[in-house]
């Protein structure tokens, strides 16, 4: 890691790296309004409504990211629109109440603003109420109590499935032109793996020294951003030369740089999203229970993302109180998404965790800067509309690299386990294959109709959960890992939790400082909470470390041979 979690890169580097995270999550974020356009009856002839949704999603994502990185899990994790809510939205909009309201001509749809806004208000109400469940689960510590049963064999398939289940999105974008997608992959590999070791001369200025030339590892810091820009320029040249068809029905058309130019033309210069901008949200039992399925799937995904992000950032595994805060803060982000009206909830973005693996920059300040950039550029809607014109294959090439990294990070967690044991091989293999096979079958055709209970809302919850690869694979691995006999060493639990519980209550001074610096609340809030005795019962509050170095004896770790001072937790 070049810049660790608590380190702050130079100002211009921080802005550039924050912009890179913005661009990394751009493809998935702008695709969400296009996916929701059909069930919400926005129509393809209303790009301005889609542009407004894009600005709203980025605005809420910036706020949620800032809250998560500052007060939540405090890892460099980006929050964005969640696709886990798409299936419940489609199911809700298929109800008889809404099914017939979309049967209008294109000319009528252009003038029926109230039509799609009434539908999104129904979604808003469901997201807001169901997200309260996530807040309670997180801040009450219920989610943290389950972590004692989670080890590397559970986390590895869960994170691996995060990357594998995103293959369809990467394939969809790359299929517009595989040549451009491969070119983007080539540039990312060239910049991040080959040229990253060569510094580039750059002009600089310093007070007292004046202008001078310094050498900067620019390809190590900005490989994704530079690859996107270079590929975008190549695509613009090919578009001007007529290499791509001008027929919109041809899939290769979206390799053109002017394929989405209408969004840039119709969007205003400035637009400030605000709560209840589409009107007062409506509430129904079906929407609340349907969205609850999306909330549960999002929570399962986020826990895996926390561990993946900690590994790539070079940080200790997140403690229970940090995970509790992270899940609770994601619930607050979903409530904000429902209030302002993004059309979906928020969750952790796996592709941005992959960006940390490429750039090797894990600075929390970079993510916070990226969140501010999201908010500012969401208000300047023309800027967001400009980047919405990034060609599909360029986005697809970036996705292939990012999702590959996330998948590899999941597999790397198995280094803690004894993978020579048939037990571990059986659990990992079964959870991965079954986690891909069963949800794929359930989403095919009318297979979801096999789930029949007396309550339609319960059917929706069961179908969505069973259709989520991460939920199925993670659940299978969790059950088998805790049911099939195996020692803690074989399961990797001993090594996995060694750093968070060294010889019970024996911890080094360095360990205590790192845990406090990484996961404690900022602005002295941890010390403030520690003034009150009752706060030790709050599951989201950081623990109190009592320094007893004057009384304690030195502790010798038999594994590493290092001496530690005794601390009491």
TrEMBL record:
Main location class: membrane
Keyword vocabulary terms for this entry: Membrane, Transmembrane, Transmembrane helix, Transport
Protein name: Solute carrier family 23 member 2
Matches recorded under NCBIfam families: NCS2_1 (NF037981)
Annotated transmembrane regions: 20-41, 53-71, 77-95, 127-150, 178-200, 221-244, 278-297, 365-388, 394-412, 424-442, 462-484
UniProt keyword Transmembrane, yes or no: yes
Protein family (similarity comment): Belongs to the nucleobase:cation symporter-2 (NCS2) (TC 2.A.40) family.
GO cellular component: plasma membrane
Entry GO MF terms: transmembrane transporter activity
InterPro entries reported in the protein's UniProt record: NCS2, Xan_ur_permease
Protein localization: Membrane
Membrane topology field: Multi-pass membrane protein
């Amino acid at each position: 890691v070049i810049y660790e979690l608590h380190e702050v890169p130079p100002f211009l580097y921080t802005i550039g790296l924050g912009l890179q995270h913005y661009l990394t999550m751009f493809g998935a974020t702008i695709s969400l309004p296009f996916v929701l356009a059909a069930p919400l009856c926005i129509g393809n002839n209303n790009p301005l409504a889609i542009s407004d949704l894009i600005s709203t999603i980025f605005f809420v994502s910036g706020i949620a990211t800032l809250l998560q990185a500052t007060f939540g899990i405090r890892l460099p994790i980006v929050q964005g629109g969640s696709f886990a809510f798409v299936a419940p939205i489609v199911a809700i909009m298929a109800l008889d109440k809404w099914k017939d309201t979309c049967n209008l001509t294109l000319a009528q749809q252009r003038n029926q603003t109230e039509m799609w806004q009434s539908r999104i208000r129904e979604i808003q109400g469901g997201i807001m109420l169901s997200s309260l469940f996530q807040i309670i689960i997180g801040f009450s510590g219920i989610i943290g109590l389950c972590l004692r049963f989670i080890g590397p064999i559970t986390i590895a398939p869960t994170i691996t499935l995060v990357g594998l289940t995103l293959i369809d999105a990467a394939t969809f974008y790359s299929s517009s032109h595989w040549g451009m997608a491969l070119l983007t992959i080539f540039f990312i590999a060239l910049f991040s793996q080959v040229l990253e070791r060569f510094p580039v001369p750059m002009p600089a200025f310093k007070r007292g020294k004046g202008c001078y030339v310094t050498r900067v590892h620019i390809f190590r810091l900005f490989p994704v951003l530079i690859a996107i820009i270079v590929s975008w320029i190549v695509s613009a040249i090919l578009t001007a030369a007529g290499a791509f068809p001008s027929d919109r029905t041809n899939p290769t058309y979206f390799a053109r740089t002017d394929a989405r130019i209408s969004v840039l033309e119709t969007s205003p210069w400035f637009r400030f999203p605000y709560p209840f901008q589409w009107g007062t949200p409506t509430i129904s039992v079906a929407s609340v229970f349907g969205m609850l399925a999306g909330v549960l799937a999002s929570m399962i995904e986020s826990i895996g993302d926390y561990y993946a992000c900690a590994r790539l950032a070079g940080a200790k595994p997140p403690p229970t109180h940090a995970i509790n805060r992270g899940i609770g803060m994601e619930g607050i982000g979903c409530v904000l998404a429902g209030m302002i009206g993004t059309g979906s909830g928020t969750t952790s973005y796996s592709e941005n965790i992959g960006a940390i693996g490429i750039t090797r920059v894990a600075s929390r300040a970079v993510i916070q800067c990226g969140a501010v950039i999201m908010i500012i550029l969401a208000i300047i809607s023309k800027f967001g509309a400009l980047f919405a014109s990034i060609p599909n294959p360029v986005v697809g090439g970036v996705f292939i690299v990012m999702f590959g990294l996330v998948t590899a990070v999941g597999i790397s967690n198995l280094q803690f386990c004894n993978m020579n044991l048939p037990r571990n091989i059986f659990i990992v293999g079964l959870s991965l294959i079954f986690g891909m096979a069963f949800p794929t079958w359930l989403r095919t055709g009318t297979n979801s109709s096999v789930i029949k209970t007396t309550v339609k809302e319960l059917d929706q919850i069961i179908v969505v959960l069973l259709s989520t690869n991460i939920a199925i694979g993670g659940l299978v691995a969790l059950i088998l890992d805790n049911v099939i006999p195996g020692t803690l060493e074989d399961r990797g639990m001993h090594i996995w939790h060694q750093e968070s519980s060294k010889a019970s209550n024996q911890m080094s001074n360095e360990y205590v400082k790192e845990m406090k610096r990484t996961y404690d609340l900022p602005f002295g809030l941890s010390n403030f909470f520690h003034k009150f005795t009752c706060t030790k019962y709050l599951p989201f509050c950081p623990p109190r470390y009592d320094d007893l170095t004057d009384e304690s004896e030195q502790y010798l770790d038999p594994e590493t041979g290092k001496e530690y001072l005794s601390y009491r937790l």
